[in-house]
């Protein structure tokens, strides 16, 4: 028998935590990718796990996390729970030798990140990736390449601000996880992650950072401005969930400028050269914005010891660690503390 026939094709088996719309989107991307099979669903409510998972083909439903991790038949878990729960759930996943896709922001402070890193060293076959969907898109990669061609960088402004319908709940005096310090919420931890990730991916580690938040009734930040200081320039981040912004994002060269319509959901990017001639950067924009990251993660999980995949993994992991540290330092600079801190 030839090697080709000996190779057995096997779908990646997926378990999920979280039954909200972001999981719908992830599952849609996984179906489009074609290498995935949803097998197991965890919810605090077993009936909800079944109602959610059955139409997607899942066959096992849990309302107990220990049971889910010990008996669930899956290779990879997607963790899409409120931020404050990620650390404990990811710990359990790694202890049970499951690969992990954790929603952003992965963890709430560098201590948690270090502990997860140590645990990964004890489980060397496990791969952990953070779902920072925007940095995996072909257009973002074009932007990175264009930036590398710019002789001088004099700064950038990156904006992502969208009014959240959940702020209506807050204004009505109701609870909302995303605006709750108990669940490690707030603007920086939510939409703020996108510009922070983009800045880290485009410019690397800044020398210092500071955050000026607009606080809301819940004690969390509703919007804010962060300034990242590098050797020769500043990067200003403008983000939030209690107002709408229609500003694009820009990187300033000397006479040239790079303009992106939206740092999190980029559909156009234009390079204006020194003569102000516009050059559109071209790349396919997926209808489902999670598709590029799912394709990238699939390649990693299917060949997790391949040298090229390991190189990607190392790059993503370092970026994830840097973003974790930046979010924490920004938050500390504004005096925003979560209950466990
Ligand atoms: N990448 C993206 O574009 C994107 C977009 C949106 C959100 N996110 C990230 O995805 C994660 C989830 O966000 P979300 O807005 O979906 O959160 P959410 O609606 O507050 O909660 C997500 C899921 O967690 C469970 N849950 C809710 N409240 C809980 C509680 N008090 N205790 C335990 N479990 C609870 C629920 O599942 P059960 O009821 O079934 O247990 C729910 O479906 C966050 O980390 C967020 O930053 C990413």
Automatic annotation (TrEMBL):
One of its GO terms (molecular function) is nucleotide binding. Residues 13-125 form the Gfo/Idh/MocA-like oxidoreductase N-terminal domain. Transmembrane segments: none annotated. SUPFAM superfamilies: Glyceraldehyde-3-phosphate dehydrogenase-like, C-terminal domain, NAD(P)-binding Rossmann-fold domains. It holds the Pfam family GFO_IDH_MocA. Residues 167-258 form the GFO/IDH/MocA-like oxidoreductase domain. It comes from the Bacteria. This is Oxidoreductase. It comes from Paucilactobacillus vaccinostercus DSM 20634.
């Amino acid at each position: 028998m030839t090697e080709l026939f000996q190779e057995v094709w096997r779908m990646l088996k997926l378990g999920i935590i979280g039954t909200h719309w972001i999981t719908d989107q992830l599952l849609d991307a996984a179906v489009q990718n074609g290498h995935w099979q949803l097998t197991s669903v965890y919810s605090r409510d077993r009936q909800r796990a079944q109602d959610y998972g059955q139409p997607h083909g899942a066959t096992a439903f849990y309302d107990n996390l220990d049971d889910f991790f010990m008996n669930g038949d899956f290779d990879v878990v997607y963790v899409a729970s409120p931020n404050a729960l990620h650390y404990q759930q990811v710990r359990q996943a790694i202890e049970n030798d499951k690969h992990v896709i954790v929603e952003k922001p992965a963890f709430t402070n560098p201590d948690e990140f270090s502990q997860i890193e140590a645990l990964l060293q004890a489980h060397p076959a496990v791969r952990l990736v953070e779902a920072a969907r925007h940095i995996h898109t072909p257009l973002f990669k074009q932007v990175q390449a264009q930036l590398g061609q710019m002789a001088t960088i004099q700064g950038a402004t990156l904006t992502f601000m969208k009014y959240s319908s959940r702020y209506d709940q807050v204004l009505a005096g109701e609870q909302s996880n995303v605006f709750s310090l108990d669940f490690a919420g707030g603007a920086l931890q939510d939409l703020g992650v996108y510009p922070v990730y983009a800045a880290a991916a485009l410019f690397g580690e800044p020398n210092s950072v500071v955050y000026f938040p607009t606080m809301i009734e819940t004690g969390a930040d509703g919007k804010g401005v962060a300034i990242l200081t590098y050797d020769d320039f500043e990067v200003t981040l403008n983000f939030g969930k209690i107002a709408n912004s229609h500003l694009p994002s820009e990187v300033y060269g000397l006479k040239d400028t790079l303009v992106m319509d939206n740092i999190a959901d980029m559909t156009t990017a234009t390079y204006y050269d020194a003569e102000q001639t516009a050059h559109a950067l071209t790349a396919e924009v997926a209808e489902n914005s999670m598709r590029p990251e799912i394709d990238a993660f699939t390649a990693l999980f299917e060949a997790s010891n391949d040298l090229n995949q390991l190189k990607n993994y190392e790059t993503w992991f370092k970026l994830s660690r840097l973003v974790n540290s930046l979010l924490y330092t920004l938050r500390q600079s504004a005096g925003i503390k979560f209950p466990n801190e």
